[in-house]
Amino acid sequence: MQDAITSVINSADVQGKYLDGPAMDKLKSYFQTGQLRVRTASVISANGASIVKEAVAKSLLYSDVTRPGGNMYTCRRYAACIRDLDYYLRYATYAMLAGDPSVLDERVLNGLKETYNSLGVPVASTVKAIQAMKEVTASLVGADAGKEMGVYFDYICSGLS
Ligand SMILES: CCC1=C(C)/C(=C/C2=NC(=C\c3[nH]c(/C=C4\NC(=O)[C@H](C)[C@H]4CC)c(C)c3CCC(=O)O)/C(CCC(=O)O)=C2C)NC1=O
């Protein structure tokens, strides 16, 4: 897994150079947003369960997926879906803290689409639920932090689609 610092340093190292102006600017903006990132992560971790619950209510409840024959129907599958949304929220928060999406590629998206396809988990409904989490999270943490979290929620959605 990379973060905003290692990714800038690695690319300078490949060229055998000190950090140039744009690389320094990237680091500067990462450090400047450090407190915001930490504060955002602590608000999200204190409210994780309710973020997921509200997102499910907004996007999935009483839709075809929760009815008999739907992929969330039965307690076991409902619980698996909630657990997946917990994963997405937690890993999006890690990526936001790191300022880099590589943790999502390595630990979440790797093989996920194939797993979903083989189990018949509907990707469109999953994307809808992740977008709902993005909205619920933004209303909780505020516009700037919500926008930064949105980058990583969107990253998961495009990795699934
Ligand atoms: C940390 C990385 C990680 C991820 C991301 C992950 C996802 C993941 N979700 C799964 C299943 C599942 N995922 C869902 C999810 C849903 N069904 C719906 O209709 C909804 C739209 C959606 C929730 C938003 C369901 C219902 C299953 C169970 C499917 C089945 O067994 O029939 C499975 C198959 C194995 C299992 O049931 O546990 C995996 C591997 N596992 C991991 O270790």
TrEMBL record:
Listed NCBIfam families: apcB
Primary location class: membrane
Keyword Thylakoid carried by entry: yes
Binding site for (2R,3E)-phycocyanobilin: 71, 76, 81
Compartment list: Cellular thylakoid membrane; Membrane
Membrane topology according to the record: Peripheral membrane protein
UniProt xrefs under InterPro entries: Allophycocyanin_b, Globin-like_sf, Phycobilisome_asu/bsu, Phycobilisome_asu/bsu_sf
UniProt KW keywords: Antenna complex, Bile pigment, Chromophore, Electron transport, Membrane, Methylation, Photosynthesis, Phycobilisome, Thylakoid, Transport
Residues modified to N4-methylasparagine: 71
Protein name from the UniProt record: Allophycocyanin subunit beta
Lineage summary: Bacteria, Bacillati, Cyanobacteriota, Cyanophyceae, Pleurocapsales
Entry keyword annotation includes Secreted: no
Domain of life per record: Bacteria
Similarity section: Belongs to the phycobiliprotein family.
GO biological process: photosynthesis
Any one Gene Ontology cellular component term annotated for this protein: plasma membrane-derived thylakoid membrane
Pfam families per UniProt: Phycobilisome
